[in-house]
Design goal:
Blueprint: E1 8-16, E2 19-25, H1 33-40, E3 64-70, E4 77-83, E5 89-90, H2 94-108, E6 112-117, E7 120-127, E8 130-134, E9 156-158, E10 161-167, E11 171-176, H3 185-193, E12 203-210, E13 213-220, E14 225-227, H4 231-243, E15 253-256, E16 262-265, E17 273-277, E18 279-287
Parallel strand pairs: 2-3, 4-6, 11-12, 13-15
Antiparallel strand pairs: 1-2, 1-18, 3-4, 4-5, 6-7, 7-8, 8-17, 9-10, 10-11, 12-13, 13-14, 15-16, 16-17
């Protein structure tokens, strides 16, 4: 069918602890993914603005997931490409990968899914609404983060925050503070996100360690603002806390961003894992090429 005969594309909206994504089957032709993401991720006029999505629905999104499902494999595989609100792509997204696994499981009935990302293939298990995904082994190595230096960056001052740098599929800067609510994240995060020591930029997390777990707030690269949850950030926080001796991450650690609770493990000799709920918000049709109307 020609683009002119079918100007719309089907989509579904999922979120993992309020980290929300537009999902489009990669078999659907979208001629300008940059314009598609920047248009429909907009929090004021993006996806959902013309729908009756209810009081709990989210207008816009934290990204668009273009997913290619390959059912012939066992477990089935889904190839994930994340385009962010600024039109850039991200190699990995923990909550996005969990949403991708839920999407694939809904179509196949599988309880296990392999999610292929630019950061590697991740194994996911599906238990009802709860999705657990392997996140690889966090790395503090300068070449992996990456850093513009030869030594790891652990609990050092960067633009006014005490930062530990770690890659959990994408680069993260983690700062432990007394109370995350006391931090003006929109003010303190951008200088760290763009600091010279991070040649590819970094996501910026502030975290507070308590008796029942860790509270999290994250300023995301590519979103260029705070998100309600960040899975790679939650894993980065626990990895950094373990490195600094603040937690025993061989046991599950509860990390609580504003959007809900996530369960993280960072074992000594196995990949980290991220566990939490995924929900389907709504579905509909979107213009295949929103840039054509501009």
């Amino acid at each position: 069918m020609s683009l002119q005969a079918d100007p719309t594309v089907s989509f579904e909206k999922y979120h993992g602890t309020s980290n929300d994504f537009v999902i489009v089957d990669a078999d659907e032709f979208v001629p300008n993914r940059y314009a598609f993401a920047t248009t429909y991720c907009d929090r004021e006029g993006g996806v959902g603005v013309d729908l009756d999505i209810g009081p709990d629905g989210h207008i816009g999104a934290d990204g668009v997931l273009f997913l290619a499902l390959e059912e012939k494999y066992s477990p089935p595989r889904v190839i994930m490409t994340l385009v962010q609100p600024d039109g850039s792509t991200a190699a990995m997204c923990g909550n996005g990968a969990r949403c991708a696994a839920a999407w694939a499981a809904e179509r196949t009935g599988a309880s296990e899914v392999m999610v292929d990302t630019q950061a590697g293939t991740r194994h996911a298990t599906v238990d009802g609404a709860d999705i657990t995904i392997e996140m690889g082994v966090p790395s503090f190595e300068p070449r992996d983060v990456p850093l513009a230096r030869d030594e790891p960056l652990v609990d050092e001052d960067v633009e006014g925050l005490r930062v530990t740098a770690v890659n959990t599929g994408v680069p993260h800067a983690v700062a432990f503070v007394d109370d995350v609510d006391d931090v003006d994240l929109e003010a303190v995060a951008p200088p760290v996100r763009h600091a010279d020591v991070f040649p590819e930029g970094a996501n910026v997390n502030v975290a507070s360690v308590g008796e029942d777990g860790i509270r999290q707030r994250t300023f995301e690269r590519g979103v260029e603002g705070e998100t309600q949850s960040c899975g790679t950030g939650a894993v980065a926080i626990v990895a950094a806390a373990k490195r600094l001796g603040l937690v025993d991450a061989n046991e599950p650690v509860t990390v609580s961003p504003p959007g809900g609770d996530l369960e993280i493990t960072v074992p000594d000799d196995a990949p980290a894992t991220l566990r939490g709920p995924v929900a389907h918000e709504f579905a509909g049709e979107l213009a295949r090429d929103p840039s054509a109307d501009q």
